[in-house]
Design a protein that fits this description.
Layout (H helix, E strand, L loop, with lengths): L2 E5 L7 H10 L1 H6 L2 E5 L19 H4 L6 H22 L3 E5 L11 H9 L4 E7 L2 H15 L10 H8 L6 H12 L3 E5 H4 L2 H8 L16 H17 L10
Amino acid sequence: MVKLIVHIGHGKTGSSSIQETLLSGRDILADQGIAYLGLMLEHGGGLNRHDWQKRSGSDIFFANARDPLTANGEMFAALSEALSQCDRDGVTKAIWSNEWLAPRSGMVLPALQKIAESGHEIEIQCYVRRHDKWAISAYSQWGLKHKSYDGRVRDFESWMPVFGGRSIRFADDIKPWHDAFSDKLKVFNFDAIGDVVEHFLVNNQIAGVRPINENVSPSAVEIAAQAVFQQQASHFNAPLRVRQGG
């Protein structure tokens, strides 16, 4: 039966680069009996597709108001159909990669456990990095580049509470995965392995695919320059205030 590799992130550890590499190399992967299922099983095939089975479907599937029982039921059906299609196509290994999975295990773990009980081998793969390096990378993307959460540039100290008001604890995210899959969970040190895309390809016996690197963490100088630019842009884009009377 098809072996399912589930790459759960963690976020800010090269997940986008891994996904772009797998997407661009789908034909090469197919020649090696490997199927890339996408972020939300959008490449999984099947006729009974859900509204979240698209590259941008994470927001829909992991919505706060969504019932985990319903989510797991839909996920089990979609995964079963995708893996059945892989069986028919002669695929020996399928890869699902989505960095949203690590901290949102309750939405998919029961479905994956049922898939494992049906006879499919499942391996969970996760990358973690130094907490300070992770926080700097997150601040650069969501605090400066996208100005997430409130639409304005904040310094790092005031941005962190807005970001979530929580400590960065990767172990809490990973524990449910370990409890469910034990030695089938593989956790890798992002800071120690060098090129995460190369590591992912070698670790999963994938050859001939050109690595693509996206969202590379900027240097301290780049972060400072970006902050200055964003602050200036916010100043010049502010609405003009006209003083009344005189």
